[in-house]
Amino acid sequence: MFDLQEILPTIGYLGILAVVFAESGLLIGFFLPGDGLLFTAGFLASQGIFDIRTLCLISFIGAVTGDSVGYTFGHRVGKKLLQRENSLLFHKDNIEKARLFYEKHGKISIVLARFMPIVRTFAPIIAGIGDMHYTTFLSFNIIGGLLWGVGVTVAGFFLGKSIPNADKYLLPIILVIVVVSVAPSAWHILKDKKNRDSLKKAVKKLFTRKK
């Protein structure tokens, strides 16, 4: 895992804004560590490295504008994108996962998806493909941006302020956040027998090569 406590002061506010923006709506951002990044940034703010108000503002702006760009992309070229073959940045399984999540939870999925890696990136694209009215999308987008972008950041800030030597517990907490956020997506994938069989074959092939 990247040492976010070392990286974030280096990339600064603009770097954090760029990461949050990219993960919220650009295809290239699905692999970025949004939850851990926001939580760690909030913690660093509690240590005086960042200003918490500025941090919350850029996190909110990055989250909302990123999702809006994702929506626009899905609305304008999404249907054509679905006809393309899989590539390094685009995989139809990710779109399908977000689509199923969107169908199950409806408009509120724009808020819920904020807390699910990969789905978070593709949900606004699916909303655009599905021609959700932009005013409706923007309303849920703003709510999601507040709960995720500001909420996770403030949680890290209060941890740093409330617990002495909290930096000792930061890595385990981030690991828990990652596991909890990834768990729903992992369960959705692994409950499908075809996906389980594919994973078993990949693991078996990996260990066979090592021998």
Explain what the structure shows:
The two termini are 27 Å apart. This protein has one domain (4-210). The relative contact order is 0.15. It is 78% helix and 0% strand. It contains nine helices and no strands. With 211 residues, the chain is mainly alpha-helical. The mean pLDDT is 76. It has helices at 4-25, 34-46, 52-81, 92-105, 109-112, 119-129, 134-162, 167-190, 193-210. Belongs to the DedA family. It is a multi-pass membrane protein.
Summarize this, please?
Helices cover 78% and strands 0% of the residues. It is mainly alpha-helical and 211 residues long. Residues 32-156 form the VTT domain.
Kindly provide the radius of gyration, computed on alpha-carbon positions and rounded to a whole number of angstroms: 18 Å
User: What count of domains describes the coordinates?
Assistant: 1
Q: Per DSSP, what share of the residues sits in E-state strands of 2 or more residues?
A: under 5%
- The stretches of 5 or more residues where confidence is low (pLDDT under 50) are none
Distance between the termini: 27 Å
Query: For the report, how would you describe the main beta sheet?
Result: none
Shape: globular
Q: Quick check: average pLDDT?
A: 76
The succession of helices and strands, N to C, reads HHHHHHHHH
> Which percent range fits the helix content?
over 70%
Structural class: mainly alpha
> How many distinct helices?
9
Question: Would you count the extended β strands for me?
Answer: 0
Organism: Candidatus Wirthbacteria bacterium CG2_30_54_11
Main location: membrane
Keywords: Cell membrane, Membrane, Transmembrane, Transmembrane helix
Protein name: VTT domain-containing protein
